[in-house]
Description:
By secondary structure, the protein is α/β, with parallel strands linked by helices. It has helices at residues 75-81, 101-112, 130-140, 155-165, 190-207, 228-232, 279-283, 331-345, 370-382, 408-417, 430-433, 447-467; strands at 2-10, 16-17, 33-41, 90-95, 121-125, 147-151, 169-173, 211-216, 235-240, 247-255, 263-269, 272-275, 294-301, 304-316, 324-327, 352-358, 390-392, 395-396, 402-403, 422-426, 440-444. Helix 8 (331-345) crosses helix 9 and helix 9 runs parallel beside helix 12. Residues 42-52 have low confidence and may be disordered.
Amino acid sequence: MAKTHTKFVCGQCACESPKWLGRCPDCQAWNTFEEEVVARTTTVSKRSVDSMFNPPRPITEIVIGEHHRRGTGIGELDRVLGGGIVPGSVVLIGGDPGIGKSTLLTQVARNLNGNGERKITLYISGEESPEQIKLRADRLGVVTDRLYVVSETNIEQVEACITSLNPGAVIIDSIQTMYDPNLESAPATVSQVRSSTAVLIRIAKSTDIPILIVGHVNKDGAIAGPRVLEHMVDTVLYFEGDRHQSYRVLRAVKNRFGSTDELGIFEMREDGLIEVANPSEILLSERPLHGPGSVVAATIEGTRPLLVEVQALVAQSYITVPRRMVSGVDFNRAMLILAVLTKRVGLGLSNQDVYINVTGGVKVTEPALDLAMAVAVASNARDLPVDPGTVFVGEIGLAGEVRGVNQVEKRIREAERLGFERAIVPKHSVSRAGKFESIKVVGVESVFQAVEVALGGVRQTKKAKSEE
């Protein structure tokens, strides 16, 4: 006979407790414990060492096999994955509702079974009926008899479908809808998500079938369910962007078979997601050419140089504590830049609201954006526009110095290709920048010097005009 008992599990880190706790002792999250019913058997099965399926062996006897990646037919996705999908890998794709996760995977399903192989692709949905998937496939132009669709949530039935069809790839939409009938807890709970994912991983590793899993995100932007879910899979991708805008950003936060620095950019259209081959040009297409507070920065995402527009707005504050709001950059990093501007440049920002934004929905984490943020804030605070043909690169220290960054030459090459005429970079990086034909490289040592170089010419022009 199986006995049942209840336990409380944290929805963030899967910490277990015999009683409800208001705050998790492991991850310190509040109100995340949920009650679950667990079946406990009275007998314990033992496996002898002689009957082990995969016994231990010396590392010198292990032969490393080649991972033949399969291209998805979408270059931006292959870039983020590291060159394609590895057989037997489990890929988790998370994102906000309506961001385009199902659309992307439907297009992937079309390309996977259209690359010359006769293997089928199995699309298992726990949220949509086959008719709904067919409507989306017709809209995207996915017409193939090698794509099989089923609506199922029982993980045992899912395993039976995969075993009977032996597909070339499997898509699960979504993991939060799957449940294990051997567990008495409800779907989307910690134990159900963990158990269902473990079954899918076992199938993928034993059959070399790649499995792509859709994961919902919570209000904090993290994938719903236990954090251990991200540790179990091989690759974790996040689909970012505003669903009310057309551009989407695909970013890898974990990849056992490639880099996590790559970035894929898509445009959402009526006929699906379209790759953006030249994202720098797209992101800068609508920038104001002579608006105070608009600055172009050169960043690196993986192996790709990317030019983004950094905007800043400084306005008089009418509250005791001025507002500080940022979008697309780290908040603490932005506060550091404002402190340096106040101390080293002499900007009076203590009674000013400051807003900083990276346009296009792109999130930049590298410190090479510091100089562009500082100049954008100074430009708007002094109401002086920056030359639209200038691009900025550099990290700012607490002493106000401009520090060098990596791959300066690649950043400047991208700016030169797009028609920029001047690049303001750290002085220590000028010698590594190389020679350029149509762009002038200016080295600066401090943020004060950078602001004067960027805005000094504009100030002199305004003064001359006023004297006339």
